[in-house]
Amino acid sequence: MGNEINNDYIGTWLSLTHIQMNVANELESNLLEQHQLSLKEFYLLLFLSQAPEKKLKLHQLESMVSLSQSAVSRLVSRFEAKGCGALQKHICENDRRNVYTSLTQLGQDKLNRARGTFNEVLLRALPEKELEDLLQQLLQLKQQ
Q1: Are strands 55-57 and 87-91 parallel, antiparallel or unpaired?
Q2: pTM of the model
Q3: SMART domains this protein is in (predicted)?
Q4: Which residues contact 7 (CB under 8 A, 6 or more apart)?
Q5: What confidence tens digit (pLDDT) does each residue in 89-106 have?
Q6: Which domains are seen in the chain, by residue range?
Q7: On the CB side of 88, how many CA atoms lie within 13 Å of its CA?
């Protein structure tokens, strides 16, 4: 890959990550303001809501939320400390070393309210035409 193509590739990638960071910041700000949820907490509730029986082991959440094991544990603990009743922790009966976190009905209700805000922000904040152009550029560069 030539130096000019390489620079175009990097520049396009950086533009995409800039858009992603701006949208993530906007999501975080709106979720905190309107629902007292961080973006990571929203993702935690979302992934739990999609899991069988609405529960997952802490180590399963690590890759889903893009955090280390200790960071996921702290995230769940902080969430529980808020006292909103959105999550419950359970010790696995078969292997007491494993801890499950499950979504309660209060957590599902909180997620349902926050989803509306999440979708509104995405619709407003995603620069559709710019994003489409950048993705097209990346695809063209990849084919060269």
Answers
A1: unpaired
A2: 0.83
A3: HTH_MARR (SM00347)
A4: none
A5: 877 677 666 778 889 999
A6: 3-143 (1.10.10.10)
A7: 12
Confidence of residue 84 (pLDDT cuts 50, 70, 90): confident
For residue 101, which amino acid is it? Answer: T
Cα torsion through 40, 45, 50, 56, rounded to 10: 90
- Secondary structure of the chain in HEC code, one letter for each residue: CCHHHHHHHHHHHHHHHHHHHHHHHHHHHHHHHHHCCCHHHHHHHHHHHHCHHHEEEHHHHHHHHCCCHHHHHHHHHHHHHCCCCCEEEEECCCCCCCEEEEECHHHHHHHHHHHHHHHHHHHHHCCHHHHHHHHHHHHHHHHC
Q: Indicate the pLDDT class of residue 39, thresholds 50, 70 and 90.
A: very high
Q: Is 142 left (phi over 0), alpha (psi -120 to 50) or beta?
A: alpha
